[in-house]
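User: Round two. Same drill as before: sequence, then structure, for each protein.

Assistant: Same drill it is. First protein:
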Amino acid sequence: MSKKKRVFCPFCSKKVITKKEGDVLREFCPECKIYFYENPLPVVSAIVVKNREVLLVKRRNPPYKGKWCLPSGFAEIGESIHDAALRELEEETGINGKIIALADVDSARNYFYGDLIFLTFEVEQTGGELRAGDDALEAKYFSIYKTPPLAFKSNTKAIETFIKSKSEYWAILDSFSSSVLLKSPKEYKPNFLSDKLVEVIEQNAGLMAEHWINDVTQNKSTPSYHQQSHEVLRERFIEDAGQYVNWLTGNYDIKIIKEHYHQLGSRRRKEGFKISELLSALSLIRKYIWEFALSQGMWTKTIDIYRTLELDRRMVLFFDKVSYYVCRGYESA
């Protein structure tokens, strides 16, 4: 089905013809001597998100009956585009809201309505109760990352654009929440700002190990390390770096970390290392991970101040715990 063309003039009822205006072929009334302009219809949509879940409605009527979409509809004559978005939201979901920002603009060609312009707004709920309106079979929240197939490609694009615009903000929330609350990965799947650092460590662990070995085998604070095999030291650095990567990504079990460093402290005491040497060696590991991260030019955007704070917080938490477990293991040997 395609949009029907005008046959008769709505003013004089004479038959309409086609005539070029400039380079564009338009419908024209030879009696009234006026052109008829076909402009894209404005469609408004609302993105309402709670806890990374987006509000969708299942369409009751054609076209795309039974398909999910954002609360959407046509702007009416005499209302602003913002009012139209809020009206459609209330009619289809029972939710009252306020416009936060324009999320996306897109053009589309629809077989039923013709050319459309989709204007999608981020909306915050201010009142109302969730219910399916007259034009909707259902209204419910879905994970914003796992929405069902949507009726309109422009809705899909708008959600993708919205996720991209919020990615850094959500990364900040995830990083600081996880750092403070220390939720386990089984309960929480964070989006860490330090993910970029994980890549740096994994790709350059060998190089960082060499810097650490050169320091720990010459530093006055770690005399017992001066006679150690470089290969053994390299394995130790890689092992500790791996533990830190697990910590950064959330793929850790605090019991495993506790047991690992408890045993490490016990072994080093039996091998004749002083506790001050162990703590100094751990401090040097932290130093070279930090310095190498800075040397990679990671801090070049506005969000980098948050990344730096989060990295520092997570380093402090990790190495403080490690130092404590090493000392307990050393004492128990």
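Second protein:
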Amino acid sequence: MIAAVPHDVESLRAALPALDWTTDAGRLALLSRDFSWFSPILKAELEGKVADIAVRPRDEAELRQLVGECARRAMPLTPRGAATGNYGQCTPLQGGVLVDMGGLNRVVWQRGGVVRAQAGIRLAELERSLREHGFELRTMPSTFRVATLGGLFAGGFGGVGSITYGPIAAPGNVLGASALPVVPEPVPVELRGADALALHHTWGTTGLLLEVELALAPAQSWIELVVVFDGSFDAALDFGDALAAAPGCPKRNVAALAWPVPRFIAKWEHAFPPGHDAVLAVVAESAEPAVRELAARFGGRVTHRAESIEAQRRNQTILEMCWNHSTLHALKADPGRTYLQCSFTAGKHLAQVRAVHQRFGSPNADARTEAEVLMHVEFIRSLDGPLIATALPLVRYTGEARLQEIIDGYRALGVRVNNPHHKHVEDGRFGGTLPPAAAAAKRRLDPMNLLNPGKLRVWPLPDQPPQG
């Protein structure tokens, strides 16, 4: 692993004077942060970690020049998209060069239901382009307005659309990608299928993404609905599950928020009456009558309706209340909370959600303090297809030891918890060990371990020292 020593960034800058460099200390501090402050643990661990210099390549040629020079100097590089991730993935642990990928933002081509685009393109811009041709993204995060394609692929999981198409890594969603090896004379490497997915959710540590090729969905006219339930999270869960499973109702998102989570969403009192649990649903216009009938069957009533495209244009879309946007709303209202990332077992998901909600989600006996853990559930399809629930519970943070007790309690009930409070790639999603395919990609595409060194807990592997 590269030692944390000062880097001669001035010689690098002198070698590439035409590039768009940033050396301002305040700007570097801002560029070196993402939403890892959601975690009080990561916030403390990453405090003061900044790049020595930042650069924004305007095209692939400039990026290749930069990577070659950094490799010759053994200088760390950390790629950055829009910094909407939650793990400190764009925070350089050992300084070096922060690479703003926003200049590589073109749609390379679209052919029917497939698109290929550069890693730095913003997802909202990509979707607007696709809808002109009758298509849309299959999945995108709630941060779609600013998030980049490369950031989604390297640091994301799923999001809006996963109720139909599953996570990003579900077979058929990602068709290919190209990456630039971090070597003195870099030449792009094309990766297809499973080889491309070896770079997925490794936070830019195993390869420097250039382009991603995606399968698309036919564009729909989506309607956004808020459905509320009076004092019964069970009813909200049952309705959300029934809607998620309804084969004749196309949908883009189904989320269930237990009260008081809805009250954290500012200026939406018209849609979230006090004491009511809520389901946020984005459904096809053609399915709206059936969805309203289904809601009434479970005792729900619709308090808000909007056309999704218009709601996005007005910055009033419920898509920005789902997924980890719920966490953002909550932390603005109650900075004493943090979150977890959970997934439940197909066929047992409702029982598991109820079990953890009952164990951790009850208000204190004096009724003046809100529950320690507040439930926010997203319904999705799993990697292999069955309907499941995932959750981003909002946790009252009282210390690392208590947080671990809650995690252990969830796991004892059969719930998978991907702990988002680790700075290492392996310890969050992968349970402590880097998958062999990801390790192989690292050896191939970053043999000198220059991509944000320190983010992989154990590297190089004992039996595979890097070559370079």
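The CA atoms of residues 311 and 317 lie 5 Å apart.

User: Perfect.
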